Amino acid sequence: MFIGFNSRTSPSNIPHSDISLKEDSKKEKADGEVVRLQRKIGLVPAVSFIIGTVVGSGIFIAPKGVLMNSGSVGLSLLVWALCGVLSLFGALCYAELGTSFTKSGGHYTYLLETLGPLPAFLRLWVEFLFIRPAVSSYVSLAFGRYVVEPFFAPCPAPMALIRLVSFLGLTFVVAVNCWSVSMASRTQVTLTFIKMFALVLIIIPGCVALGKGKTENFQNGFEVDLLTLDRLPLAFFNGLYAYGGWFYLNFVTEEVINPNRYFANIPLAIICSMVTVTVFYVLVNVAYYTMMTPAELLLSDAVAVTFANRTLQGMASVIPILVALSCLGALNGGFFAVPRMLFVGARDGHWPPIFSMIHIRRHTPLPAVLFLYPFVVLMLMTGEIYQLINFASFPRWFFIALATLGMLIHRYRFPLHPRPFKVSWVIAITFTLVCFFIVGLSLYSDPWSTGISCALTLTGVPVYYVTVNRFRLPHRWRRIFSKSLPELPTFHCDLALK
């Protein structure tokens, strides 16, 4: 039922003599019979994939965190706009990386190609240890909350029922991504149109009220009395979380039609989707502040529902359904993209080989998808929804900064490497420095959460040397590990950095 890939047998590692011997046998197999990830994602599905992954629970929950940590209406809108610009800069950097290294895997692949195997392995390690489970459980809980709470309003909904509905939504998404790539792609396109309709329903009445002169909440919008420098990075973390997902198309590069040509599908999809999302996000927040005071927004755990109850009397019951479907789309995009990183890591020898296998008929990385499922369920049943963003943001943005730093280093070391799309030096350097600044300042703002995240990230270092790179350990250490851990699987890594 499955076919596996391995770094020892990948095309880049087969001698030219062996390739010539095998060319005669190629006539015996049509290209369609070769089991591999299929290129089925065109421009429209790619744009829908990015928008559908970015627009999830964040825009309906994060405004409270941005306002709380920025201290004023004007500054919070500025944070939203800057987060959009920063995300666009990062997306452009990843467009260059995605067209320079056409292998799937996203962050993992770019760190491997530019900085080496240890940072790449650590990115895999933290992604599946706590980043992806934390993000997926957060989105799942938001889905469950928006489905359940309208039936219990104005009373609080039972947390057990919210978790049950969240579990059912999560299971549905996993089943779709196991069943078919085309089905997951069509689901993403459909849910993307639904969630954009939800944003339009919020923007239109807000803009109409703003046009009628309802601007009292914007007066003295840049009061900085409540602003403290140590909380500003947390405002950016909340905003950047809402924009999170612009990098997911790079996880499925091998499934994108025509990824290499200048301004082809990857760069064009990234630019179109991020400009659209930024404009919509700023307009949605303007609509929020037009109809709600800052105090009312801070008191609301479901900003979109509070907004709908005030402005969309006839359609107030529709908004929670649309928001729940929006969360489901973000969850589907994450489960479509992230297992591809594990698949590529296993194919390169950085993870057990079983996760480099593809279903022989459905062409989905089924073991990699199923591997995530129990981790997300565990965090879903034990995690607290508002403690997960900062916890997952530190390692995510640290490794994104490392990936763009690696891109700059690779440019300097290999200036002749083909780059069908090339981003400006100014954009790349600005994005990298801002990311490192935000990550560094977050250590000061929230040392407990970021410290735990940093410690969990570093636990991958001994795992890397015990499994992937045991031969680099001193001989005495290797002998100790061989005696004490005789059954421990060793993952090989034959890749030479390009």
Automatic annotation (TrEMBL):
It is found in: Membrane. GO terms for cellular component: membrane. Residues 1-25 are annotated as: Disordered. This is Uncharacterized protein. It is a multi-pass membrane protein. The keyword Transferase does not apply. Keywords: Membrane, Transmembrane, Transmembrane helix. InterPro entries: AA/rel_permease1, AminoAcid_Transporter. Residues 1-15 have a biased composition (Polar residues).
